[in-house]
Design brief:
Radius of gyration: 24 Å
Number of helices: 7
Strand content: 25-35%
CATH superfamily of the largest domain: Immunoglobulins
Distance between the termini: 38 Å
Helix content: 25-40%
Shape: elongated
CATH class of the largest domain: Mainly Beta
CATH topology of the largest domain: Immunoglobulin-like
Largest sheet: 5 strands, antiparallel
CATH architecture of the largest domain: Sandwich
Length: 298
Amino acid sequence: MTRRVLPYRVPSEDVVTAEAWRLVTADGDIDLPEALPDWDYQMDLNLRRVVRVDLDRARAQAGLPTDTALVLAAVWTATGSNLSGPARHVRLTDRGARTVELEFRLPGADLGGLLMLDTALVLAERQNDVRPSSPRRAGSVLWSDRKFLRLQGDAPQFPMAVIDFALTSFPDHAAWHLQISGSLEGATMGSLLLLVNEKNTVTTTAFENAGKPRPVDRIVLSAVYADAARVMIEHALTHDDFAEDSDFPVGSLGATMQSLFDQLFPGQSITDIRLRQRQSPALFASDLQAAVKIFEVS
């Protein structure tokens, strides 16, 4: 196991015993898998983990006073949304061994891509009267580990909202609308929003069943994905700075567009596809339809 070398004393790994993360489902708890193939942005995640900490040994081995306050914290990061935040933290001021259950819910709208779950035992407060070799700053890490969960699914992977189109400027009978705003440098999660018309029950039901779609739901989701891909690629091609040598920030709309382009048109240049789209829109539409494999059953 690779371990970071920190500029202060840390306790041995065995002062913390962390059980596996558990995914809380309607059918009971299961060990956290490597991936959730049926996940979509409407699916919140309920997670649980039991951690045991030998506080006396942790403090002694780090050269800390016996009454030093520690914190056991869980932090999440999602690459798809470029968001992160604290999930749960427990202050530890007692002595001896302590068993802590970390349990929390993560909203699906905040997630996407690769979910990283970091658990850490850290110093709660700054310590002034300790040895030079001991940790001093609040937040100094004494122990940590990281687990990964890949989130993927059949539904288009961006935030969505179900609204009544009759109350908007969109056509009353349209089933959905992909809204794109901001520059290609902006964060993907803040630039894309899929709006679904609540009056179109076929589409709303398909998204409700995205975790376990019926054949008709798969057809609807395939149509939505194909249309969303078309809108995104066409939007990207209108920007002259969307090119092969563009270097967009990780998690940005431009980087997402580049990834989608490479997936749909492998081995083809952006310049060639842009020219085809401008000179023969009908052929481009057929090319894109073939690229997304519309209505194919995976």
